[in-house]
Write a structure and sequence with these properties.
The protein is α+β, with helices and mostly antiparallel strands. The chain has two domains: 100 residues, no CATH class; 62 residues, no CATH class. The chain contains five helices and eight strands. β5 and β6 form a beta hairpin. 11% of the residues are buried.
Length: 197
């Protein structure tokens, strides 16, 4: 397929990127959102950024996580139910303690011994790119709402644009020298008007 017949995605990306930034500066938030959605839509499905507060909050959970020995699912240790179990006399003599800490898995509801649990401490190092961002902020009425909304929207915008740029770069890197008819330049484009010296 001749390259000239393909949609000019590169130019569209440049136009929508410029449009999004210009609309942000001009406080045209709906147009800004539209340009970001268009940028995201030009990416193949496997490179698109998900816009979901629920998915973002799940992905961004940091802290101490406990792995259940029964279902092998991770649970945020700050939110699980913990309690102390009084050990029988023989077990307390062997363990040299009268009580044992137990936690309840939030997925399978089974009891896990804290002493036998594998813990993971999750901390994100900046910059990080997760391919997911929260939903854009919503505008509230009133003068204070406008000022706060612009600051919140600006922060959300630059986070989202950063994620999109990371995915655009990854897509470009993954397909830079990929063989195939849409990536190869057609040999039969005809005379370009340039002479070889």
């Amino acid at each position: 397929m001749p390259q000239s017949r393909l949609p000019d995605v590169n130019t569209a990306i440049i136009v929508y990127r410029r449009e999004a930034i210009t609309d942000l500066k001009g406080n045209r938030y709906d147009a800004c959102l539209g340009a970001l959605h268009a940028l995201n839509g030009m990416l193949p499905k496997e490179y698109r950024v998900t816009i979901s507060t629920l998915d973002y909050n799940i992905m961004m959970k940091e802290g101490l996580f406990a792995t259940c020995k029964f279902c092998t699912q991770e649970s945020d240790f700050r939110t699980v139910k913990t309690f102390e179990l009084v050990l029988p006399f023989v077990n307390s003599v062997i363990a040299t303690q009268a009580k044992e800490k137990i936690w309840l898995c939030s997925h399978c509801q089974k009891e896990n011994r804290t002493g036998e649990t594998m813990f993971t401490n999750k901390i994100f190092k900046k910059p990080y790119y997760l391919r997911v961002v929260p939903d854009p902020p919503t505008r509230k009425d009133g003068m204070m709402g406008r000022t706060q909304f612009h600051m919140q929207f600006s922060s959300w915008f630059w986070t989202t644009l950063g994620e999109l740029e990371a995915q655009l770069a990854q897509f470009r890197d993954d397909n830079w020298k990929k063989p195939g008819s849409i990536y190869d330049i057609d040999d039969d484009l005809g005379d370009t008007g340039e002479e070889n010296y």
